[in-house]
Amino acid sequence: MQIEITLTALPSAEYSATDLGFLLHKHPDHLHTRGTSAGDVTIFFTEKSQERTTAVLHLDVDPVGLVRGKNQQSDGLLAQYVNDRPYVASSFLSVALARAFAQSMAGKSKDRQALADQALPFEVRIVPLALSGDLDLVERLFAPLGYTVTVQEDDYVVALQVRATIRLADMLNHLYVLIPVLDNFKHYYVSEEEIDKLLAKGEGWLADHPDKELITRRALKHRRSLMNLALARLEEGMTRENEDEETPKLKPEEQLEQPLRLHALRLDTVAEVLKQNKVSSVLDLGCGEGKLIARLIKERGIDRIVGVDPSVRTLEAAHRKLRLHQAGDAMASRISLQMGSLTYGDRRWQGFDAATLVEVIEHIEPHRLSALVLSLFADARPKIVVMTTPNREYNALFEGLKDGKLRHPDHRFEWTRAEFESWATGVAEEHGYSVSFAPVGPVDDTRGGPSQMAIFNQEGAQ
């Protein structure tokens, strides 16, 4: 099985098609071989000219090696040895693609970074490709991503050719995800870690794909629990990315609150609460770009901080702003960032002294708050939970905010003080916590503070 990648260039182009070697980190005059868990990979160039250059990734899978010494579920030994897995493009090819072109999939090129960031005219041919479904499925999956699709069929195996003017990294990530989806099979066990890989490779396109449910279902081997978790994280990631699109200009909420320095005040207040309670580990849910974490780093008593966010792009921004790539071993062991959904339980959340949700809950659909409560208060059970959310009563004091409007277009709701206190008290009573409330920001005698904070303490916790 193999993938053929061709870059073309017009005579007037400012680049040469031979730059494909730089983009793939492979010299066109050399034969590149390596062993992978999927099989032996060979990369070579069949065309090399200024106008057209083609690189081929050929994967040789050992059919006996696939099953030797393994107790796989099958219809018997014959079914294990006599099958099409070693010969058709499938999840084996995706694994090989990720290993052979890891830097290219990450969008990196040491010598041609400007080209790696640029949409270029690529052609890709995959032969032979296993297809589980009608030929229309190929069009459904690739056309929304901007590809022109050509398919040659022979029984249920096809030769696929797609063309698009696109970034190389985007194209490789599309192929990584969609090749196993077309086959409707993966050769390896799928767990929650596969969600992270799917969302990382699907960053920027999967959430908007009209067939995202089909893609997610097949990519996760029809495990409904994993599919639901992945779709929830896609939805939350879209929310976060929609907010990020407002930068560098201020977001609507920040424009309203800027004169009060409310965002900084909230973070300072929450950090002070954690300091007063002498916590040593903090789980920051909905960590965004790491602004609260940046404050907590300065506290010597806090030796473990984990930030969780559903958006890969936001976590990458947090990683840069916190300069974790420059961190030594001590800092790396102290701080980590995780992609995750806030409405599905995660065993990694357990064992923390404190959890924080700073202006997070209002971005969650009200009917899904119960799932957040179960994940956090019933399963993770930190000793302290610090939560802030806007006070809707205060909105009338913001100049330019019309009656009935929320501070941010992505807010699903904003609660009055009575609504927040009623909800939080019910949560505390049901899950063995006590709760206290405090305003955040300048307090109006009638309308209270612009933000409101709840501090949950687990009863009996030391």
Quick rundown:
The protein has 462 residues and is an alpha/beta fold.
Helix percent band: 25-40%
Average of pLDDT: 85
Reported by name, the CATH topology of the largest domain is Rossmann fold
The largest pleated sheet is described as: 7 strands, antiparallel
Q: How many independent structural domains?
A: 2
- CATH superfamily caption of the largest domain: Vaccinia Virus protein VP39
Please work out how many helical segments DSSP would assign: 17
What's the Cα radius of gyration?
Answer: 26 Å
CATH architecture of the largest domain: 3-Layer(aba) Sandwich
Low-confidence stretches: 69-79, 244-250
Percentage beta strand: 15-25%
Which sequence of strands runs across the widest sheet? 2-3-4-1-5-7-6
CATH domain class name of the largest domain: Alpha Beta
Question: What distance lies between the first and last C-alpha atoms, to the nearest angstrom?
Answer: 60 Å
Based on the model shown, name its key terms.
17 helices; c-terminal autoproteolytic domain of nucleoporin nup98; 2 domains; elongated; alpha/beta; 7-stranded antiparallel β-sheet; Rossmann fold; single chain; 34% helix; 7-stranded mixed β-sheet; 462 residues
